[in-house]
Structures are given as C-alpha cells and as structure tokens.
Amino acid sequence: MKFKYLLVKDISDYIRLITINRPKQLNALNAAVIEELHRALEEAENTPVRAIIIMGSGEKAFVAGADIKEFMHFTPEQGQALSEKGHKLLFDYLEQMHTPVIAAINGYALGGGLELALACHIRIASENARLGLPEVSLGVIPGYGGTQRLAQHIGKGRAMEMILTAQPVDARKALEYGLVGSVVPPELLLDKAVETAEKILKNSPAAIGLAIEAVNAAYGKDGFKTENRLFGQAFATEDFKEGTQAFIERRKPKFSGK
Ligand code: DAK
C-alpha cells in the first residue's frame, strides 16, 4: 500500500509500526494524514498483524495537533463535517479496532495529537513528551473526542484543568495522572512499545478483540455528539478566527470579552 505521509514497517510477523511522517510540520494531522491512517489501520486489522505501534517521525513530536493551517478557514458546517469524518475514519475507528494499538509518544502530543493517543489502547511516553489540549487558546474546543476521552482517562477535574488552562503536562505528570502507562528515555521508546506488544502476542487475539469491545462499552456516545455540535459552534466565532490567525502570525491572540 502506498502512502505519502506514513511509513509502514513490520517489526516482526505480527507487530506493525506506523510512523506519521510530516516532521517539518511536527506531524500535524491534515485530512490526507487522517485518511491514510484509516487505510493503514484498516489494512492491519484485516491481516495477521496482532499489535500496531503508532509514532511520529523526528525527535520533536508525536503529533503537534490537527493542521491549524488547513482548518483555520473552515466554516462551521465544514468544521462539523470534518469532525464527523475524522471520528468515523480515525478516532472512533481506532478505538474500536480488535487489533490493539500502542501510541509511542515521542515529544509533543497536542490537540488532535493527544486525541489520537487517547483513542489508542495503550500509551507509552518518552521522557521529553509534552501532552496537552491547547484548543481553547485558538478559540476552539477539542473536537476529536478530547473532551470525552481525556476525562475518561484521568478524571473530570484534571481534564477540566488541562483543557481550560490549555497547558500541557510533562511525561512525569502524565504518568502520575495515568495518562500514559510508562515513561522511558527517548532512545528506548520503541523497544518499550515492542516489549509491550510482545506481551500482547502471548494472549488470545480473539479474546483481546472482545475485551477491547467490552471495555469500550462502558462509555456512552452522547458526550461525543455534544462535543461535535459545540465544536461546529466554536468555528462560527470571531475568537476562532483571531486564535488561529495569531498562531500563524506567531503572536498572542486578543480574544473578545464574554
Ligand atoms: N498545525 C500546523 N502546523 C503546525 C502545527 C499545527 N498544529 N504545529 C506546528 N506546526 C508547524 C509550525 O507552523 C512550523 O511551521 P513553519 O512555520 O516552519 O512552516 C513548524 O510546524 C515547526 O513549529 P514551530 O516552529 O512552532 O516549532 P517550535 O519548536 O517553536 O514549537 C510547538 C513547537 C509544538 C510548541 C508549536 O509548534 C505549537 O504551539 N504548535 C501548535 C500546537 C497546537 O496548538 N496544537 C493544537 C492544534 S488545535 C477538528 C478536531 C480537532 C481539531 C481540529 C479540527 N475537527 C473536528 C474539524 C484539533 C485541533 C487542534 O489540534
């Protein structure tokens, strides 16, 4: 299978590594990356592969967010449509896969990048990782499940604090919060992910698929629908235009009052 933005490599007969390869943009997720990730995951789900590792290329970032330059000019309708498509192709799809997916978080996992890691079944971070949902600093809200999955993983209070302050946490804090399962030096990140995958390989693939389905069944879908609607609403605001423009111009945004 050919990809423009992904590197796909089999580490062994049953472990596949998918690397998001846009290092100059810190692996930001544009629509094409989302579509390619869907194809790569779907392909792996339908082959003998029994564990998947996702990483970002380069040493700086797992994924620094959705591609701000791509979505900044969207209308509310386009924003909502992109959100629905993203959920269907990537975030919900990945979460419900029967093949376990491990996020190996090397560096920044921000916005859509953290949302991608949150949809994975297991998260391992390198010591230099920084994880956060900075969307409100751009005048928008997390739209790829972050308002729901972050609270599911670390509890409502911590999630509120991270989302409302827009501040990332470092790897140590992420471990303390239970946002990641382990933290290792950057040079050992892939080894640790492979070691975890090898533990999975010892178990029944059929039971693993069913266990993923059963764990996911505990979490309702209404919150995701609300997030989707409110995300579209945020796209209609002047703050959204200002926040994304300020990012491009490398200045602090001037948001309106309430
Ligand atoms: N999008 C596009 N380009 C990005 C990017 C991003 N998220 N993050 C970084 N880049 C680009 C930078 O613009 C820069 O490009 P050039 O200027 O060189 O062309 C290049 O990557 C290197 O970045 P920096 O020069 O800024 O590198 P620094 O080391 O100085 O800073 C940083 C690293 C990660 C702190 C900084 O790049 C940064 O703050 N990046 C933005 C982080 C962020 O705010 N991420 C969250 C984005 S909001 C949606 C659902 C969800 C979302 C969107 C839509 N739908 C449902 C429709 C999610 C939204 C987000 O993820």
Model description:
By secondary structure, the protein is of the alpha/beta class. The protein has a single domain (about 5-185), classed as 2-enoyl-CoA Hydratase, Chain A, domain 1 (Alpha-Beta Complex), CATH 3.90.226. About 50% of the residues lie in helices and about 15% in strands. The protein is globular. The chain has helices at about 30-45, 70, 75-95, 110-120, 145-155, 155-165, 170-175, 190-200, 205-215, 220-235, 240-250; strands at about 5-10, 15-20, 50-55, 60-65, 100-105, 110, 120-125, 130, 170, 180-185. The strands form two sheets. Strands 1-2-3-5-7-10 form a six-stranded mixed β-sheet, with helices on both faces. It has a four-stranded mixed β-sheet with strand order 4-6-8-9. The chain binds 4-(N,N-dimethylamino)cinnamoyl-COA (DAK). 4-(N,N-dimethylamino)cinnamoyl-COA (DAK) binds near residues 68, 71 and 108. 4-(N,N-dimethylamino)cinnamoyl-COA binds next to α2, α3 and β6.
Percentage beta strand: 15-25%
CATH class categorisation: Alpha Beta
Label the CATH architecture.
Alpha-Beta Complex
Provide the succession of SSEs.
EEHEEHHEEHEEHHEHEHHHH
Bound molecules: 4-(N,N-dimethylamino)cinnamoyl-COA
In spatial order, strands of the major sheet run 1-2-3-5-7-10
Mean pLDDT: 95
Biggest sheet, in brief? 6 strands, mixed
CATH topology: 2-enoyl-CoA Hydratase, Chain A, domain 1
Our count of helices gives: 11
Q: Helix coverage percent of residues?
A: 40-55%
CATH superfamily: 2-enoyl-CoA Hydratase, Chain A, domain 1
Number of strands: 10
